[in-house]
Design a protein that fits this description.
Number of strands: 0
Number of helices: 8
Largest sheet: none
Helix content: 55-70%
Amino acid sequence: MTTTTDRPAPAEYAPEHTPRLPWAELAPEVYRAMVRLDAASRRGLDAKLLELVKVRASQLNRCALCLDMHSKDALAAGESVERIIQLGAWEESAHFYTEKELAALALTEAVTVLTDGFVPDEVYERAAAHFEETELAQLIAAITVINAWNRFGVTCRMAPGHYQPGQHG
């Protein structure tokens, strides 16, 4: 089997799992609505910042498909490998990011992991200090949308490794 990635021949690795359910094919109206929602949530946001947020949410949600997709899109948007790698430890690697990016990453974590049932005031206020209200509303929308995509990907066990940058853009 030949893939479009730089991975060695599949015999050297564990077999790729089969997705559980082709949800986009079975619920095409929902899929198309998600695509429109995703496009609407991107408006006015910096492409590199958006991809950092999407990668971080996907890490937290353990969505391999979205990690594959958004890491590739981040690289295609000009993001560095180093900054993508450091996202898993962004708080310890704060010097890799701007204050605005750090505020966006903190907000991403708070919205993604609602273990306390709410987004803490200090996290929201930090983000509000770095984003105009319209941009902040778009960022919250983008974080919410990637979390929805992650839930589809994880629940249906979508397989990573086949995405090409910009394929769904």
